[in-house]
Structures are given as structure tokens and as C-alpha cells.
Amino acid sequence: MAEPAPIQEAGPGTAADRPRRLDGQAIAGRLGRLDETLGRLERTPGATAETALDAVTFLTEVYGEALARVMDRASDDSRLIEAILDDDLVGHLLVLHEIHPEPVERRVARALDALRPRLRRKGADAELVGIQEETAQVRVKAGGCGCGGAEPVEDVVREAVLAAAPELVGVHVATPDTSTSTKTFVPVEALLRPPAITDGAP
């Protein structure tokens, strides 16, 4: 019987040396901790806290410029751009730095398209009517039924829209049981939450 091949040590540049990648749950956890940490810094008086917040601002600006340069170099490859925009986290960062190449209407429509199979399993559907005064107008059919448990369809739609377009100030979800003159605005604290990062869970 042949001798087993010796186990090779991982050399430089191998997968063992690369930083550990974060899954959706880990990203969401870190974003939550980041929000808490920044909140504590903002409530802390003194020069040290101000310096720390300045450092975060400068670092964010540098990362934003790096993202912009990546998008510039990828702009000639439509398939690459599509793959980049399909990533929830990257898309949110592009919006944060105001360099997302798609208009808000397209981003909301994409989010609703991605959500549609989940809604239809619950006998519901949603479509974008338009964007008016920085508020998304969304028509939901069979509104009020549960989606993913006890969570109403309207809440699921609202969360998906704001994850795709966090710069919106509100979402008006029209259902057969609501008047078109009634607006449902998202609380300010909801806009400050990090985006929901998923791993393709239904």
C-alpha cells in the first residue's frame, strides 16, 4: 500500500493566510456593534471621543474613494457591475457614499423583484408605483397576510425597500384596506439601522 502523501504546511498567500470572511449573520452583528459604539462615542464628552469620531469619518471617506475607483474600473464590464450590485452589503455602501450607479427607482424595483417569490408563497405581491418627494409608493396585493411568520407583508416590503434605498425618507404601502391618501413613514431610528444582510434565506 502506498504511503500517504505528507501534509503540506500552508505557505504564504494560501487560503490559510487570508483574512476570515464574514457571513451575513456576522456582518449584521458587527454593524449592530458599530452603531452602539458610535452612539456611545457621540454621547461621550471630551476631546478623545471627538478625535475617535473624526478618525471614523476620515476612514469612511477614504474607503468611499476606494469604492468609487473600483466602480470606475468595473464600469466597462456590465456583468461585473451586475454581480457587484447584487451584493446587499456592497450596494448599501455604494448608496452610503452616493456612488451607486442605479437610480433609486431601479434599486427599489430590484428589491421588490427579489422579494416577490417570498411574497407569492404567502399569496401576496408588491409593485413599485413610483417615487414622490423621496417617498416610495408601493402597491401591495393581499396585504395584511403574514410573511415569514407573524410579520405583516407591509413591514417586510418596507424593510426591503429601505435596505435597497436607505436615502428615502419614507415608504407608502398601499393595500386594498388602506386609503391612498394615508402615508406610512418609517421612523428615523429605522433609517439609522444597518441594512439586513441575508445569506439567501427564504
From TrEMBL:
One of its GO terms (biological process) is iron-sulfur cluster assembly. Gene3D superfamilies: Fe-S cluster assembly (FSCA). One of its GO terms (molecular function) is iron ion binding. InterPro entries: FSCA_dom_sf (IPR034904). This is NifU family protein. It comes from Actinomadura soli.
